[in-house]
Design a protein that fits this description.
8% strand; alpha/beta; globular
């Protein structure tokens, strides 16, 4: 029994928990072993468990003939002339008809599959707990809470306005900084770090005397608006809130990047119809996300905004670290939606949005620059993707369903226009 008197779990504690789960011990027994409260054990397991893919977990796997469909999508099927109930995982990312079948036992104690008697033959996604993985995640969370730069979004924007243009014109950081040193919120050395960390429009290539040699990879400065933004908004909190409010509509929010340091997309994926809204942003900052939510409130009005965006789930990117400006109407102070975060490095927890990004990548390949695109271009991409029928909805498109649920008026407000099926183009040529 470990009564070390420490507040936090150690790696030894987590190794004991891992072994006890394999032996099928309950939470009360595990808590007694490590000398912690039972609630602590429950939170530890639910916070640090992770998914392990097995075989084909699609709901339709028993009746869906996969080989012909795979060939149409250019996927090499390893199980030719057989059905997709075989141990193939291709349809999880390549098939629009894919609907995940989840084991309900995962949401009951012990919340992992370590001691499940049917574990070996189960094809569904399993939940596992690993002590070293949990310890690494804990250390990452602790480090993240201490990192970040001390500027507000407004101060960073001022710094960008004053410094970037003259730097791009060939002037040195030190000279520009000296000219404005009375108003500068940071030192010249810190400005160099911000340029290197892609926090300003000026880049390393704009610095004349920057050494032209490969740099060792290192994490740059992070602008985290609210370092405590995850408190009360974790994935565990999200699960609890969904259990209490299952009727509220769910939106998954994410960022799609183009060329590093260039323009990016904000995507808002509505799960009740698979419609995905897309907005172009010049820089990947919290202020740019907040601005889009401000525009959506003005565009839709209070009632329609609150109908569409009741619960928002996103990852822990720094662009999402200003939750109050997303949740609260800045004009009235009213909380109009709830924001929650996935666990660290668990983007699968918003898999619907991630899967729909595959359609965006058909048109805007990964790594391709979006700097030449406008919001009108992105609206075209959005309308073609949302007009594309889904087998999951019996051939109906997300735009068809969205119109039935919310009405044509909301479609018009959001700039959603149906593209005829024969005109849908999901290739880069759409933007050429």
């Amino acid at each position: 029994m470990n009564h070390n008197g420490k507040k936090h779990l150690t790696l030894d504690d987590r190794l004991e928990i891992q072994q006890a789960l394999k032996e099928g011990k309950n939470f009360a027994q595990i808590a007694a072993m490590v000398g912690k409260n039972r609630t602590t054990i429950t939170r530890e397991i639910r916070a640090h468990r992770y998914e392990v893919a097995a075989g084909n977990d699609c709901l339709h796997r028993h009746e869906c003939p996969i080989p012909g469909e795979c060939r149409k999508r250019g996927i090499a099927c390893p199980n030719q002339n057989r059905f997709c109930r075989t141990r193939c995982q291709q349809c999880r990312t390549g098939c629009l008809r894919y609907v995940q079948e989840a084991c309900q036992r995962r949401e009951k104690p012990p919340y992992v599959c370590s001691a499940c008697p049917g574990r070996v033959k189960c094809w569904l996604i399993k939940m596992e707990y690993d002590a070293k993985t949990a310890q690494a995640a804990y250390e990452t969370e602790r480090t993240e809470a201490r990192r970040g730069i001390s500027l507000s979004e407004e101060e960073l924007e001022y710094l960008n306005t004053v410094m970037s243009k003259p730097i791009k014109q060939g002037q040195s950081i030190s000279v520009v900084w000296q000219r404005h040193k009375e108003e500068m919120p940071v030192s010249a050395r810190t400005v160099c770090n911000y340029v290197e960390g892609n926090l300003l429009e000026a880049r390393n290539l704009d610095l004349r005397r920057k050494v032209r040699m490969p740099q060792r990879k290192k994490s740059g400065p992070i602008l985290r608006v609210d370092k405590l933004c995850h408190l009360g908004r974790t994935f565990e909190d999200y699960r609890s809130y969904r259990q209490e409010n299952p009727e509220e509509t769910l939106c998954q929010m994410d960022t799609v990047e183009g060329k590093k340091g260039g323009k990016v997309l904000l995507t808002l994926h509505l799960l009740n119809c698979d419609l995905q809204l897309m907005y172009l942003r010049h820089r990947n900052t919290a202020a740019s996300v907040s601005e889009i939510f401000h525009r959506l409130r003005q565009m839709l009005g209070r009632e329609k905004f609150m109908e569409l965006f009741q619960v928002v789930l996103t990852d822990r990117g720094t662009e999402f670290t200003d939750p109050l400006r997303i949740e609260v109407d800045s004009d009235t102070g009213e909380v109009q939606c709830r924001l929650f975060y996935c666990d660290p490095q668990q983007t699968n927890q918003k898999s619907n949005a991630e899967r729909n990004h595959g359609l965006i990548r058909y048109i805007i390949p990964k790594g391709a620059s979006m700097d030449h695109l406008t919001q009108a271009d992105i609206a075209k991409v959005m309308n073609h993707i949302n007009s594309y029928g889904r087998a999951k909805w019996n051939g109906q498109s997300p735009l068809d369903l969205f119109g039935k649920i919310y009405g044509q008026e909301v479609c018009d407000l959001l700039g959603l226009t149906k593209v005829p099926p024969e005109s849908i183009l999901l290739k880069p040529e759409l933007l050429k």
